[in-house]
Amino acid sequence: MIIAPPLQPARLIKRYKRFLADVDLPDKSSITLHCPNTGSMRNCLYPGNRIWYSDSGNPKRKYPCTWYFIEDPQQNIIGIHTGLSNRLARESILSGRIVELSGYGKVMSEVRYGVQKSRVDFYLSDHEKELPECYVEVKNVSLLSQDGVGLFPDAVTLRGQKHLEELTLVRRLGYRAVLLFCVQHSGITRLMPADQIDPVYGALLRKAAAEGVEILAYGARFDMEISRVELDTALPVILEN
User: Fold this and answer.
1) Could you say which of 72, 93, 126 is where a domain stops?
2) Which of 7, 29, 115, 151 has CB atoms 3.0–4.6 Å from 227's, for a disulfide?
3) How confident is the model over 23-32, as pLDDT tens digits?
4) What is the C-alpha to C-alpha distance for residues 218 and 205, in angstroms, rounded to an integer?
5) Residues 60 and 111 both lie in one domain
């Protein structure tokens, strides 16, 4: 995926009010960016470090520029734009790079499903090929532990717990149910549930896997010079305590 408008560099000053971040530009001026991340952004906030943003050029927007990535002290690239995860996942499903989800002719977004009337990120079907209907939830991963393992979630997530319950019920009905971790962190090579942050989520994840929910993780490759990012590497998910 090529991000447009092209990404531009800056230096982080601070994130605040959840959806805002101040940055220094190369010309020594400063601007306020929209921060498209509702989470804690634990281990993603490094004042003074390089970030990349996109300028929509839309004068009607109060904050026309959007923050996408930050570089950590080890020079890892971290994607903080959670909305980008679904775009990356969709592109990778359609291109066949996520091999476990390849072959489906129909990919629909935001389809209602489950007893709690949630909206699943993707619904895959292909009746001509007689492939099983498939429900896919996507989660963005940006938290790297001190021992080099990617962790999810970075804060207690009631919404994420609900999604695991829905996927488990869908699987019991005989459909494919998939949880896809979109790992937007170049330093992450394997993934585990963050039990110390949200033990309920960890328990539900293991229960879902035991009942047949497929747990996938794919890592992103970044090229900041041409504003390109794509999911291309399958990563192991470790569920053992």
Assistant:
1) 72
2) 7
3) 999 999 999 9
4) 17
5) no
Claim to verify: residue 46 and residue 123 sit in the same structural domain: no
**CA neighbor of 154 nearest in space, from 169, 144, 167, 143:** 143
With 0-12 / 13-18 / 19 or more C-beta atoms within 10 angstroms meaning exposed / middle / buried, residue 174 is exposed
> 25-62 in b/e burial notation, b at 16+ Cβ within 10 A?
eeeeeebebbbebebebebbbeeeebbbbbeeeeeeee
Tokens describing residue 89: 């996942």
User: Are both 60 and 98 inside the same structural domain?
Assistant: no
Looking at the domain assignment, is residue 193 inside a domain?
A: yes
Residue ranges, the chain, pLDDT below 70: none
Question: Cα separations (Å) of 76 from 65, 114, 129, 184?
Answer: 22, 38, 41, 10
pLDDT tens figures, 39-83: 889 889 999 999 999 999 998 999 999 999 999 999 999 999 999
Whether 38 and 88 map to the same domain: the answer is no
Number of structural domains in the chain:
2
